[in-house]
Design goal:
Layout (H helix, E strand, L loop, with lengths): L3 E2 L20 E3 L2 H6 L3 E3 L5 H11 L7 E7 L9 E16 L2 E13 L7 H9 L9 H7 L7 H15 L5 H4 E12 L4
Parallel strand pairs: 2-3, 4-7
Antiparallel strand pairs: 1-2, 5-6, 5-7
């Protein structure tokens, strides 16, 4: 079963007349159907529209950096599940050499708790642990509800202020990159 959509009127910022000259073509996700219909564009990787969409949602300005992570956390101060916002930053440093500048990148993981404090131990665990494969269960979802008391923008400002004290760099805009944000639930190990 295939789904046909008109893409020429959707997502105007992605529309490119080079692949839709009449603006009246159909989009098809099923390869066999697209081959049989000369008026259909097969939407897959490599298609200008798909590539433009991926470039857009992968751009930092899109804001698509948020995920939900659930990790098992040994070594936290309590056996009670904890929630926080996990921020991953890269910080660029310059090393001057005879043959030119060399750039090194350090990764900083910071976790901001719902009360606005930073949790160093939880950040260490979050940086090294993989997310649980089954996604958030009821306990994790309930724990993540604690984050409603602190909005993401405020948490970001707290993480930014902490990073400015911790890391050495010349210019925030040039040397610091936010590479990931996640709502984080750390749950006790159950095995």
């Amino acid at each position: 079963m295939s789904r046909k959509h008109r893409y020429s009127y959707l997502f105007n910022e992605f529309r490119d007349r080079s692949f839709s000259p009449s603006g009246d073509r159909t989009a098809e996700g099923d390869r066999a159907t697209a081959i049989r219909n000369s008026q259909a564009d097969f939407l897959a990787l490599g298609h200008p529209f798909v590539d433009a969409m991926l470039r857009r949602v992968g751009d930092y300005s899109f804001g698509g950096h948020t995920a939900v992570r659930v990790i098992q956390a040994d070594g936290l101060d309590s056996a009670t599940p904890k929630a926080g916002y996990q921020f991953n930053f890269t910080v660029r440093s310059r090393v001057q050499r005879e043959d030119g500048d060399e750039y090194l990148f350090d990764l900083y993981t910071l976790v901001v708790l719902p009360d606005g404090t930073l949790d160093e131990r939880m950040a260490e665990i979050a940086a090294r642990e993989f997310s649980l494969p089954d996604g958030p269960g009821d306990t994790a979802l309930e724990t993540l509800g604690q984050l409603e008391s602190l909005d993401l923008r405020s948490a970001y400002q707290l993480a930014k202020a902490a990073l400015e004290k911790r890391a050495e760099f010349w210019d925030w805009e040039e040397d610091v990159g936010l590479i990931g944000v996640a709502k984080l639930a750390a749950v006790p190990r159950t095995d």
